[in-house]
Amino acid sequence: MLDDTTFKNKLKNLLNNSDKNDFVKFLINDIDKDLHLSYKTNIIIKSDFTINYLDKLGFHWPKIDKKYLNNFINLLKGVF
Fold first, then answer.
1. Residue 45 in 3-state DSSP?
2. CA distance 45 to 37
């Protein structure tokens, strides 16, 4: 677990490093002006149309299981 200051410093370094900033671009919409993660929203996202369309194309979302989460966490560890 990272303390707030360490997280902010690592995030700034990643954002300033053009080779690695792709790893954190997905967080941009979730960070406020003080680099705090903020997930407060009243927006409800519905993806039924997209899921059905992709299903017709033969794409099925992977099941999020323990193996999937471990791989994701290991990817993040490699970035941070």
1. coil
2. 19
Nearest to residue 21, comparing CAs of 29, 32, 13?
13
Q: What is the pTM of this model?
A: 0.41
Cβ–Cβ < 8 Å for 51, 45: no
Between CA 32 and CA 75 the distance in angstroms is 24
In the numeric block, the tokens 């099925």 are attached to 60
Which residue carries 């792709």 as its tokens? 22
Q: What is the pLDDT of residues 8-56, one digit of tens each?
A: 888 888 878 777 777 777 777 777 888 877 777 788 888 899 989 999 9
